[in-house]
Amino acid sequence: MAVENQFRDNDNVKDKTRLLSQNEELYTSDCSTESIDLSSRIDEIVDSLDIGLFHYIITLICGLGYSGYSIFYQSIGFVIISACDLDINRNNKGWLSLAYMIGLAIGASIFGRLADVYGRRKILVIALLINLIGMLASAFAYNYLMLVIMFGLVGSTHAAVVAAIHSYLLEFFPRRYRGRAAAVLSSFLIFGNIYGSVIALVILPHSFYSPIGAIYFTNWRLYLLVDSVPSLLSFCALLFLPRSLRFVIAKNDKKGLRDVLNKINQINSCYKTEVDSYQQVIYCKVGHRNLPIEEMSDNIENDKGNTFLQDIRELLQPPWRKRLLLMSLVQLGYYVAEQGLTIWLPTVIAYYVNGQTCWHHHHSGKNNNLSWYTTHSSQNVASDCQSGNNIRTVILNIFLGHLISIPIAILCVLLINRIGRKALYIILASMSGLCILLLLIIDNLQGVLILACIFTSIMTNGWTPLKIWNTELFRTEFRATAQGIIGVNGHLGGALGMIIFAALFYTNCIATYTIFSALGFLSAFLALFLPDTTNLDIG
Q1: Per-domain residue ranges for the chain?
Q2: Which residues face 286 on adjacent strands?
Q3: Which pTM value belongs to this model?
Q4: DSSP 276
Q5: Fold of 53-243+306-527
Q6: Other C-beta atoms within 10 Å of 524: how many?
Q7: 348: closest CA among 381, 380, 374?
Q8: What are 444-467's pLDDT values in tens digits?
Q9: How far is the first Cα of the chain from the last one, in angstroms, to the nearest whole number?
Q10: How far apart are CA 301 and CA 304, in angstroms?
Q11: What is the tens place of the pLDDT at every residue in 338-354?
């Protein structure tokens, strides 16, 4: 039965209300207006929705906001090698990525809980606004220290986006469409990577200097500004979208539910309705009767939600405790392998381009330092700056890997509901671990170039089932809180992966590959002990 019905005129509304009044004595105490609890009907209400224009629009808007995460993450490496006017050298170049990862960890610990208290949309709007301010300040950073601080700020806002965006989107979709909707959302990471690579390819190889006050406005500053366009579009559009459907139902907010459904109806009908929204009668299924929400008792107070400690106590009860622990470990392993290696992948490629191999590392001598710097396209020990054809070559190699991600993303969208989130993630995580292991076994330039592209495409798409699965494992009341806790572990794992690579690769690259490969396989193995959520009630 449809959740939302619109009557053509006021007479029909009055007739229906009169009919309900005549049959009022037929309702038992379970169906009385004062006993209605929307939160007990979350899945039933959401599953009654039909997919319309609203769902396509909100998927696009959320996707643009989510793509800003991958665009900026990729930009870290590009800024390091192109910001020639800043004092970036071999001693401080790691600050930028580390500050960003610390910001992600701090933001995940804060914004996940706030999204459960104040709503997903409100937190997304605030986070994207701060993000845009941070991006603007980064583009006009006075020195490298200011840039590092701003990147940490931007990282904290991206943590809010990562923690809330999947919950916000999926809570509008019935279960039969959740998998594909989230798969499309995750595929915007690929869009972000391709967008960022294309913008970098167009802007960064061309050097220019325009003095503005105490700074020079250069190509990397323009690159950061253009990178922020998808986030800006998402921020502007979110201002006109409703709150999360499942969130208002979980809060037992009947007026909020009516407003959300009216907004969905307006967008689905292109804002051309024949009656005003306050004249619409929205029905909620209770027992075997239909009751208009306007007639529900106003004496039922909205559920303001649990406190943070109450949510933590709830998460420590079965089955949530096991899910929280296992998913934290699954994401920890995946973050270390993915983020720890991906951001340094150009370093790996440059290492082999210089004629070195992992098995003969001890013969490479002082050329080890040279390979580190050529990753950032400069053989000057005091500078990592790169420009012209050198930076163009680096960007093209990364761009190719992102293009290969597209067909794999299409397969993920088609298979996410057929084989399930669990099986798809285990396959992709295992293949990622295998790719890293093959880097060690093959150990030559041609093999590394091929495997690097495959690794990039697989690891990027691994987020599709992982994020959907993580979102669906927990109830609406503390879903974003759980994602925030898991996100803290994940982002700390990403920072750990970067540290492991920086500390080990040039002294023992065999150990580096082995650790990253083992963590990829471990993540896939631990996933075996979590339940699959495909087409299940998520509460």
Answers
A1: 4-31+254-295, 53-243+306-527
A2: 289
A3: 0.72
A4: -
A5: Growth Hormone; Chain: A; (1.20.1250)
A6: 23
A7: 374
A8: 888 887 888 888 888 888 888 888
A9: 19
A10: 9
A11: 777 777 776 677 677 76
